[in-house]
Amino acid sequence: MMTSKELRELDDAKLAEKLVESRKELFSVRFKHATAQLEDTTVLSSVKKTIARILTLQQERQGA
Question: Cβ neighbours of residue 29 under 8 Å, at least 6 residues apart?
């Protein structure tokens, strides 16, 4: 999981790349959760929060 500070240091291209990466990770984690292979369910919420942080930063940059 990346913090907001770490995400703000990334440029737009890296941020978009990180978003794609995080969405793939979320799909994988959801699949593991559905098949009862996921031991640590807190990963779900942390990946969702990372995606939300990235989307928020992208919105802020578009508005600026």
Answer: 38, 43, 44, 47
